[in-house]
# Entry
Amino acid sequence: MQTLYASRGSESDDIKISERFLLQSLDSMYDLFIAQLSLLIEVHKKSKDFLDKTQKKLLATKEEKNPNSKFVNNEVLTLLSSDEVFLELIGGQKENPWYLDFEYIDVIFKSILKSDIYKDYMSTNTSTFKDDKIFIIDLFTEIIAPNDKLYDYFEDKRITWLDDLPVVNTAILKILKKVKVSSEGKFFTPKLFKDTEDKEFGVNLLKKTILNQAKFSEEIGAKTKNWDAERITQIDAILMQMAICEFQKFPSIPVKVTINEYLEIAKEYSTPKSSNFINGILDKIVKGYTEEGNLNKIGRGLM
# Structure
């Protein structure tokens, strides 16, 4: 979607340039994934340092000398922080964003200490793996993901990261929800593409959408005659073009799968009313294809 948006809808654009931009954007998104997940490791390190300094205070109280180490010993953070595959991936990065911009770790850590989530979690000295996991999920959902300063930081760091953040945060949450005591290997380092076919699909969808944008735009226009063209956002237009491309050029993808996918994207990236608008237009287009016998779908249940 970002690549099509950047191309300004011009079919004359060099396809190779757009393809290169797409792959670079995906690589950049994976860099954001690494940065956001490694932030948890840095927060874990910060908690250990904080605990150590608290114990060594000159006039430390009895409670400070024997602090609650529940956060430091959190099993999920310990599992992540000791994951050799993920640590190697971080080491292979051109730069560690938190090495120079450590003040953002301080911001997040202070927000954690002030939160009710942290206070409730630390109200006891022991916990199960399940308790630790729920705490980290809540911490990420309520404190890290919506943090405004972190949001601004990512926007300044790379222009595409702002749009990538919702996707990356969702991916990290899925990982945290699935993590188990026995998780190992490449659990924290999922592949950017499932396989070569997955990568080829993304590239082909981009190419076929760009090459047929004028035709797809005409189809959308025919179903939106009562709408002011200026009221249709560019993002909505691009999402509908991509959906039509899947309807016409990818016979193995069920219509419902395509529609549901782009409605979810619209909810995340476009206006509050966009998903309903897109759903209505795509529904009209599919009905038209069906009546004309032009819905080229193969396999059972692919309508």
Observations:
- The chain is about 70% helix and 0% strand.
- Residues 225 and 235 are 19 Å apart (CA to CA).
